[in-house]
Amino acid sequence: MQQPTIIDKKDPYAALRYKEFRSYLGMRFFFTFAYQMQAVIIGFHIYHLTKDPLALGLVGLCEAIPAISIALYGGYVADKSEKRGLLLKVFIGVFICSLVMLVVTSSQMHPYVPVEYIVPIMYLMVFGIGIARGFFSPATFSLMAQIVPKEIYPNSSTWNSSSWQAASIIGPAMGGLIYGFFGITATYSVILFFIGVALVCIFFLKPHPPTYIPKDNIVKSLTEGVKFVFNNKMMLGAMSLDLFSVFFGGAVALLPVFANDILKVGSEGLGFMRAAASSGAVITMFLMTRFSPMNKPWRNLLIAVTGFGTSIICYGLSKNFYLTLVFLFMEGAFDSVSVIIRSTIMQLLTPDQMRGRVSAVNSMFIGSSNEIGAFESGLTAKLMRTVPAVVFGGSMTILVAGITYMKTKRMTKLSLEEINEHTT
């Protein structure tokens, strides 16, 4: 790890002064850009073919099932593997799945691939991406801790999340616009290009030896990671709160329905709707590089989750496209506070030798709750219609935050250090 002469924890650019961390951010940005483009066009294209909101929920379920099933094993592999080599394999797998989707959705393939086969093949490729994601999250979480010193973990977490959100702004907007003006084949071609750029960024990372050489069998090793999380009340509480709020707040999966049927703004409008939430998130995250939310993290987390749920209700009730963009912007802003607090807690409280396994547990709690939440939203939209489903999800999110507040009042006045002393 290349060390600057002096580490200034108050420097908002502290993590960016490490060359390898900049390469890491590039990898995360370009891969997330491609992933978010793909997510928005998969949803819109499947809804275009099926006209069924439940089909949108099934996209999330197809990714969540393998991601959850393989998460703990992925964390075990990440802890005992060289991270750069593991990420290369993950990216190659995602590239192949995206290439298959490009081929089957191409107009040139229509004489050879019947329309009724396209959706099942896309579900299968999403399943494959879910498998890759089971290794991606713990590998990247472990790698970041190896390329910056512990003193600037909060700063590196903020920049890491900001990079993700910046890509999430541009990716959906570009996906919707390219799909709307140039078609799905051009969009998948751009996706494959940026996955390739992310692959190139990996080669600028140094090989890092594993931080954990397993002496126990795999079951005992995985159990150790799960026990660590469940014995740390602050980490478990943050994960649980986000699990339920994201599960009930997965209404973003229904944006294609709003864009197509309610607001009637098409795929171009869908891109801007997806980008609005990410715009709120990235602007808030850049502000948090100077104004940290970690002074009273539990209080700020509860406020953020409550604001997230309120924004979802407002977006569900809105009939005006521009007002909807405002509410989605607010949703992203509140969500970003939650992301920063949770990721900082995880980085600071996790021992180096357990980062992969702890990240895997977090992925089971949080990462896949987005996809399961998407399924919940699709199912409730099928049963209750779209707008009531979104309002229900936002209301349940606020209810979860309220119940959590009643049970954890004493933690709202504590700093991160004080909470750690009380809960470990």
Distance, first to last CA? 30 Å
Mean pLDDT: 78
CATH homologous group name: MFS general substrate transporter like domains
Helix content: over 70%
* Major sheet size, sense and barrel closure: none
Low-confidence stretches: none
Structural class: mainly alpha
Query: How many β-strands, per DSSP?
Result: 0
Shape: globular
Provide the CATH architecture: Up-down Bundle
Q: How many structural domains are formed by the residues?
A: 1
Q: What's the CATH topology name?
A: Growth Hormone, Chain: A
Tell me the number of helical segments per DSSP (H or I, 4 or more residues long).
15
* N-to-C series of helices and strands: HHHHHHHHHHHHHHH
Radius of gyration: 21 Å
Sheet-strand content, in percent, reads under 5%
Describe this structure in words.
With 424 residues, the chain is mainly α. It has one domain: Up-down Bundle (Growth Hormone, Chain: A), CATH 1.20.1250. Helix 8 packs parallel to helix 13 and helix 11 packs antiparallel against helix 14. It is globular. The mean pLDDT is 78.
Features of the shown structure:
424 residues; mainly alpha; Growth Hormone, Chain: A; 15 helices; 79% helix
Question: What is the compact description of this entry?
Answer:
The protein has 424 residues and is mostly helical.
Describe the secondary structure blueprint for this structure.
Elements: H1 19-50, H2 53-80, H3 83-105, H4 115-147, H5 153-182, H6 184-202, H7 218-231, H8 233-248, H9 255-262, H10 266-288, H11 297-317, H12 321-349, H13 355-384, H14 386-407, H15 416-423
